[in-house]
Amino acid sequence: MPILFFSCIFSFLSINSIQRGGVFVWIALIIAIYLLFIVLNILSYAQYYLSTKLSVGGFAQILYTMQNSMSGSENTVLDAVKGFFEHNWLLLLLGTLVFGGMIWLYLMDKKGKIQTKIEPMKFTKILKKVLIGLACFTLLFDVFLGVKIYDSLGIKEYNESLNKESDLYDKYYADARKTNIEFPEKKRNLIYIICESMESTYTDKKNGGGFQQNLIPELTALAQENTDFTSQEDSQLNGGYTPGNTTWTIAGIAAQSMGIPLNIGNNDYNRNFEKQSKFLPSVKGLGDILEEEGYQNYFMCGSDGAFAGRKNYYQQHGDYKVLDYYSAIDDGIIDKDYYVWWGYEDNYLFKYAEKELSTLAKQSEPFNFTMLTVDTHFQNGYKCKDCPDTFDEQYENVINCSDRKIAEFVKWCQKQDFYKDTTIVISGDHLSMDGLVPESIDKDYPRRTYFTVINGPEYSLNKTRAYSTMDIFPTILEALGAKIDGHRLGLGTSLYSDIPTLIEILGYEEVNQQMSYKSKFYEDVILSGDEGKIPTPTDEKEESESKENTQPVQAPTAQQYQANKESFSNTDYIWIPSYSEPATTPGTGGEMTDPGTGGETTDPGTGGGTTEPGTGGGTTDPGTGGETTEPGTGGETTDPGTGGGTTDPGTGGGTIEPGTGGGTTDPGTGGGTTEPGTGGGTIDPGTGGGTIDPGAPDSQ
């Protein structure tokens, strides 16, 4: 609005000086009007393009693209220019004729060759006023459209975010350089298919998508038949959220293989990534880890590998062999003069991949074969000869075609000898930027990228995870059988673990905002590599010991409980039995009975003093606490299955079944007990007598 106001002032102040000008001034004014008219057309098309054809994740994405060369994206730029003339050609033609006529009319008027009923002097004044009014109108309208575009691009929000500081990294960042990661002796291969703009959104509403018809039936089936980190009862297709600065290809790659966003506030690290500059040199990513473990790393794409710094990234983080458009020519996959879309389409990509994998499988070293599809790139995608005409829109048909090609490639892999030792990961790099998607779905639909793991470990948590693409980093490593101390890397959490993700802790909106803010930790540690700013295990130990020294809540006596047992159904009432067994070291303990062994054990379902599930005395509702200790901390607990007087799950001898009384606490409750992996005197999950089921929350 200030820009609009000052433009008005400038326009009106210029009127008097223009009125006193000569022929040159007036001709210059007409030319200026015409240029403003051209700018008006460009801005109007930009507004149209941003609102209907393009969906960007924020101004940071645009700024990053502007700071890097457009090598490899020439086709997209040409499409945008072509679209401008196709959309505005009539207005441009009429405007050119009108302004050409204005110059002719003015010159003829000055020569006195215009014959009208209006007095010549008066006609000249009218003409000049029209020109001045037209100049003011075009200028003001240009400013108006400029303000709209300013808002559409999120420039205001971006500038505001630069003045806010995030503590996300200080609290949650797990540096891979300092995290212990152990691989099995027999290492598994990795085939990692990064699918351009692939969303779980593309499935139908019955399967949790946003479209009326399922555009990706094959990928939907693959996710449901394998691991997409949902509960067994959940048929809704899961997917990863893409918070701030993870919303374009190279940023999505950084998120999925480093567990961090690609912040661009430091020009030394974020310009010219396609050249020889250092690309986040202080961050240890997926490729770095696999290289250290003896993996041969490969990256394949159907475009110029240098675009947006991808080649630089992969070569610096894992010494990847990059196979791109130019490699395909050298290897005889395509002719030297072949060029479509961004280079070559996915038909050739998958053929190329099959050829390379057949060779890699003969080597003794494990391999990481990462590939990036391209056909589903905005705008409208690339419709190859195999694409169907099932749907009304080209982009829908291209997505459907990509779905089938990916599934066919996976089936080919499953038929190969190397498959038994290979884990396949399929993920979308980011949300689609094509305007068709937001136009086709409900306004409040939570869009997420596609993600599934094939031929990986069993997903045993049986719950639907809420996660971001940053969580894919540690998840891939644990899918390969690696063990990560703490199950966290970068800002990501392995979805195989029971550790909550940042999305589960803070919610998507909070994480999205925080990731757009500045962070001194990000600049000092991630960009500059200052390991002195990373929290040490000593710091974590001191914090843990501080929590252990906290005085527990005094438990009510049995008499107090008996006096109040009528109100047990009231969730506001908490009874926690007294607990005073001696502390033992996790995993140790006296009077311990192995799981399934006896010692005062009764057959399942039997036993004296057993109460039916859901009944009784002494049970505390989930979520209650008292005398609870943080996971992994000590005091009066032992690991599951250990402890003194341990009983088999569901057995008797004074034992109470889950959810029943007699000193038992429901999952999530306290009472002198801690989560699995802690203290002494604990009874296996499902048993009674002062036991807490695994999954009980920490005391806060």
Broad structural category: alpha/beta
The name of the CATH superfamily of the largest domain reads: Alkaline Phosphatase, subunit A
Radius of gyration: 33 Å
Highest CATH level, the class of the largest domain: Alpha Beta
Q: Any idea what the shape is? A: elongated
Quaternary class: single chain
Question: What strand order characterises the main sheet?
Answer: 5-4-6-2-7-8
Q: How many individual domains? A: 3
Helix content: 25-40%
CATH architecture of the largest domain: 3-Layer(aba) Sandwich
Largest sheet: 6 strands, mixed
Strand content: 5-15%
Distance between the termini: 48 Å
Compute the number of strand runs: 12
CATH topology call of the largest domain: Alkaline Phosphatase, subunit A
User: What is the mean predicted local confidence, pLDDT?
Assistant: 75
Regions with little confidence, pLDDT below 50 for 5+ residues:
1-20, 266-272, 537-562, 565-700
Task: Write a brief structural summary.
The protein is α/β, with parallel strands linked by helices and about 700 residues long. Helix content is about 40%, strand content about 5%.
Notes on the structure:
The protein has 3 domains: 2-161, no CATH class; 187-535, 3-Layer(aba) Sandwich (Alkaline Phosphatase, subunit A), CATH 3.40.720; 552-700, no CATH class. 39% of the residues lie in helices and 6% in strands. The protein has helices spanning 2-19, 23-53, 59-67, 74-110, 120-152, 155-161, 168-172, 217-225, 249-258, 267-270, 286-292, 310-316, 325-330, 346-360, 394-414, 436-440, 472-479, 502-506, 508-516, 520-527, 537-548, 558-564; strands at 181-182, 189-195, 240-241, 296-301, 321-323, 367-372, 422-428, 451-454, 467-468, 483-484, 488-489, 492-493. The strands form 4 sheets. A 6-stranded mixed sheet has the order 5-4-6-2-7-8, with helices on both faces. Strands 1-10 form a two-stranded antiparallel sheet. Strand 11 (488-489) and strand 12 (492-493) form a beta hairpin. Helix 2 (23-53) packs parallel to helix 5 and helix 8 crosses helix 15 (394-414). The longest helix is centred in the N-terminal third of the chain and has 37 residues, at 74-110. The two termini are 48 Å apart.
